[in-house]
Each structure stands twice: as structure tokens, then as C-alpha cells.
Amino acid sequence: MNRRNTIILTALAAVAIFAGSAFLYSRSANDAATVAPAAEDSQLVRAHSPVLGPASAPVTIVEFFDPSCEACRAFYPTVKQIMATYPEEVRVVIRYTPFHPASEEAIRILEAARKQDKFQRVMEWLLQNQEQWGADGDPKAERAWELAQEVGLDLAKAKQDAVTAEVNAVLAQDVADVKAVGIEGTPTFFVNGKPLPSFGMQQLTDFVKREVEASRPKS
Length: 219
Description:
- The structure is a single chain.
- The chain is of the alpha+beta class.
- It has one domain: Glutaredoxin (3-Layer(aba) Sandwich), CATH 3.40.30.
- It is about 45% helix and about 10% strand.
- The protein is built from 8 helices and 6 strands.
- It has a 6-stranded mixed sheet.
- Helix 1 (about 5-20) packs across helix 2 (about 70-85) and helix 2 (about 70-85) runs parallel beside helix 8 (about 200-215).
- The relative contact order is 0.17.
- Mean pLDDT is about 90; it is low at about 10-25 and about 25-30.
């Protein structure tokens, strides 16, 4: 077993402990903030990319993210904790990376949820219940829709919004950028345009901390 797999398995055990807690989705919670598009336009950050956190934050985490990916699920509590630690200084830009059979449908659900200002709550609920819909050998797209409805998504409207030319263009551009940047696995992180030097949750936390400290005015 390689080091990356060991990290992922350890993290999945941690997620199991936190499942159902406030660390992921709680039924009474709203999205932490409106998920706005990014302002930039590059292979790392597109104008259409969902952004969690303040648009003006000095530190940007770009995550190449697959909603069906177990490692993305495992890393999410760490990403959320980083945002909680630096609520005004860090933003997270999501880049869609549909490497798994159920991923494209889940991305369409997320884009439809964004139209209803429910992106983060739907994303968290899909991640928390990923095993119900995202298994490679038995993907269940309809179950993903049911889960999204459980946290308030207007299903009839969402199913129309999920298949628009706009969503098709978002998917096409993100897939093209995944190839252009050379992304081979998820999650892959960049912090202020710099790739994470080594894979791991503590490494991501430490890297972001250094970038935050560097961005602060010198006394």
C-alpha cells in the first residue's frame, strides 16, 4: 500500500467518526456563504468556478474535485476546517474533475443546486452519503438526486437547470482544463497558484498557514 492510499484510508476512518455531525451537513444549516463565480479566467480558475469563502480573500485554494472520489470526501473536513480557521483570508475554488462513472451527473446536480443557493449543503450531503450513489461498480444517479432533494433542492427545477447549455459549457471547460493542467488524481490542490508540494492533510493545512501568514501586513 503506497503512502497516498494510507493517508486516504486513515482519513476515511476519521470521516466515519464525524459522519452525521456538524462537521459535515446539519439539517438546520444554511450555506456558509453565497457561492459566487470567480473573477479570474485561467486554466486554474475560471470565471464560472464555484467559490466558497470571500471573493476578496488573499489566499486561494484551488481544488480539482470529483464528488464521487473517496479521497475528496476524506479531505473535505480538513478543507472546511481551514476555511473556519481563516474565514476572511481563505477561499476555495472548485474545479470539476469527473473521473468516476457517477461524477458527471453529480456535478450537474451541484450546478443546479448553485442556481438555488444550495451548492454547499448539497455538496456536503452528497459527500457524506457518497457510498449510496457514487460506487464505481454500481453508480446510482437517481439516488444522488433523492439525496439532494432531502436537503431542500427543488427537484423539478433542478433537473431542468442541470442540462442547460451553460452547464454543458462548464463541464466541457473544466474537463479541458483538467487535461491541460495534467491532473491525474483527485483531490489535487493548488494554493495561490502553487501545487501542494506533497500529498496529505497536514501538508495542505501547513501550506495554507504559510500562505496566510505571508499575506498578512508586516508589523
